[in-house]
Design brief:
The chain is an all-alpha fold and 113 residues long. It has one domain (13-107). It has 6 helices and no strands. The longest helix has 24 residues, at 50-73. It is globular and about 40 Å long.
């Protein structure tokens, strides 16, 4: 997926998690794809306000909720470090697309991890 936003195109999503063997790379790859799809939806739909952005991040958060099952099956989980890294990447995405005032907790409000 090609991003027009250069900040996003050059960003290493989930970087700290890839450095930790506790988190399987193939599942991190799926998480990275969730974040890239979110960026693609933002670029395609161009949300005009925070409510529209939060609607898009809700879908991505729900994808991470489903991915949690795969982490458990692999002997891992989306725990404190992972939660912080994932939420931080949601925040980066919001900033990169001009939503610096987005609330980090609201971006991932639907999380169950």
């Amino acid at each position: 997926m090609s991003m027009t936003n250069q900040q996003v195109a050059g960003y290493a999503f989930l970087r700290a998690l890839y450095a930790d063997e506790y988190f399987p790379d193939h599942l991190l790859d799926k998480g990275r794809e969730i974040l890239l799809r979110l960026c693609g939806r933002i670029e395609a739909q161009r949300p005009v306000d925070l409510a529209a952005l939060y609607a898009l991040t809700e879908g991505a958060t729900e994808e991470f909720n489903r991915l949690q099952e795969e982490f458990w099956a692999a002997g891992s989980e989306i725990e404190t470090m992972a939660r912080d890294e994932i939420a931080g990447d949601f925040g980066f995405i919001a900033d990169a697309y001009g939503f610096a005032d987005a609330d980090l907790e609201e971006l991932v409000a639907e999380r169950d991890w």
